[in-house]
TrEMBL record, chains A, B, C, D:
This is DNA-binding transcriptional regulator, FrmR family. It comes from the Bacteria. InterPro entries: Metal_Tscrpt_repr, Metal_Tscrpt_repr_sf. GO terms for biological process: negative regulation of DNA-templated transcription. The keyword Oxidoreductase does not apply. GO terms for molecular function: DNA binding; metal ion binding. Keywords: DNA-binding. Belongs to the FrmR/RcnR family.
């Protein structure tokens, strides 16, 4: 099942932003700015990659496992919402 | 839905092992052994907590979302198995 | 070199708090409360263990590598303060 | 203090490799390959970013805090080597 074009656009925008952040790290390494400043740039890449991991996992759950808003079984819908909360908390 | 008693026993054993590791950290802090050795003990707690997170999340998926081995919809069973792989890779 | 008793008391208090959190996880597993609630308890253990890792690493730097406030070499003092910032950002 | 050109080349090569991995993620998102496969690509970015964090932190310690191989104070050299071990274990 393919994602909606809205979701695809959002994920692609996240991917482009991460590429921009990685290019900033490369320029910083090239320019030999202070290590501590490069490390802060790298930490921001790490945060963005974790955010993309959480978002992709959530999309995978909604599209390939259970879509909680369309699920007729109330227990399963609830369990899926709880799982999405866990993914947001633990992967970010 | 409650877990099987086998799963419960396994999770409880993990919990007890983590408590034992934390008690070792406390004794190490009390005895003022070298920082680096305490840090290695703390790193092992961290690994064990991540392992428990992954195992609990997998149990949650199997019991409250989709049990892939009993799921008649093949796509959903496959998507769930992929999700469990992601959880094992990303949470551990 | 041993830590001051103030630092030791603070680290021991952190260790005890983590043990209390792990015992709460064990009780939750025993009582079979919902997976999602247990996972939130486990996530709080993880946060606390990461906090202890960062604090122990900072203490190790201050006591066994360079104490930035007592360091006569200004560049080294600055580099050490930057390192402590990195540890606080990346290990927590 | 600037790094040696050998270290700089090694860090730049890591940066370029991460950019290549991020571009692969972008292509995968564009091509709508399966979520699970994209997630494995993202997990490899995460590993590479953690590796860069650990290596940059180690370089920072060696160049701006204490160079353990040139340090006359044996305790300080030992404490620094232990710190580098912690960084390699906990940041990767």
């Amino acid at each position: 099942m393919s994602h909606t074009s809205r979701v695809k656009a959002k994920l692609l925008a996240r991917g482009r932003r991460i590429r921009g952040q990685v290019e900033a790290v490369e320029r910083a390494l090239e320019a030999e700015i202070g290590c501590a400043d490069v490390l802060m740039l790298v930490a921001s890449v790490r945060g963005a990659v974790n955010g993309l991991t959480a978002e992709l996992t959530e999309e995978h759950i909604r599209h390939h496992v259970v879509a909680p808003d369309d699920e007729p079984d109330a227990d399963r819908a609830c369990g899926t919402r709880e799982l999405i909360d866990v993914v947001r908390t633990c992967l970010k």
